[in-house]
Amino acid sequence: MYKYAVEQAHSGLFFNQGQCCLAGSRVFVEESIYEEFVRRSVEKARSKALGNPLLPGVDQGPQIDQKQFDKIMELIESGKKEGATLECGGSAGGQRGLFIQPTVFSNVTDDMRIAKEEIFGPVQQIMCFRSVKEVIQRANATHYGLAAGVFTNDIDKALTVSSALQAGMVWVNCYNAMSAQCPFGGFKMSGNGRELGEYALQEYTEVKAVTIKISHKNS
User: What pLDDT is stored for residue 216 in this prediction?
Assistant: First the structure.
């Protein structure tokens, strides 16, 4: 399962150069498989080809503009300064264009900026946990709550964690699995209301309250 989880965590973050509202930039990994998970994640990140994303064989294109490029690079530098381990990447990709090398940090703690702020770029934070209670508390310790993913062979853990996570969408053993029938929206600072699904129809309706005073009670 953890090999599949590595692949899903990778695609869930690096899709569209990390410029996705659903990007899973914080990855919590159980202590027993942490080192191997980091190793495999670094291998996948290093294998990505940068260039024109419209060309065959290219995995990652440039960031959207100079402002976003500078923001991502500044957050990468903060991760280095605050003590995270830079496993790969961490610098611009090439001499021209707004390319950033696929970046992986390990030994990330919850108080670091790269763990708290929305990077919106190709930067993956891999964090270690020991218990289900711990990872639920840490995962929920954020202002955001749009989406989350849970990977496990234990159905009890899957139900417990997915129920406890403060996120509008939780995927179990998959990520970015979207459909028109599934409500899309988040908790906390990740927005109000829902798109898609039956709940989205409420955004196109108006509710009217009419209150009438009556002179006598009939019952």
Answer: 76
The confidence score (pLDDT) of residue 66 equals: 95
pLDDT at 219 over 70: no
Cβ contacts of 151 within 8 Å, gap of 6 or more: 1, 2, 4, 5, 8, 9, 172, 173
Contacts of 51 (CB under 8 A, 6+ apart): 58, 60, 61
| pLDDT confidence of residue 112 | 96
Helix (H, G, I), strand (E, B) or coil at 171: strand
Q: Whose structure tokens read 């995995």?
A: 59
Pairwise CA distance, residues 198 & 33, whole Å: 40
**48: number of CA atoms within 13 Å, CB side?**
30
In DSSP terms, 105 is beta-bridged to 86, 125
DSSP H/E element including 163: helix 155-164
| Two structure tokens written together for 17 | 């150069």
Q: How far is CA 126 from the centre of its chain?
A: 12
Mean model confidence pLDDT for the chain: 94
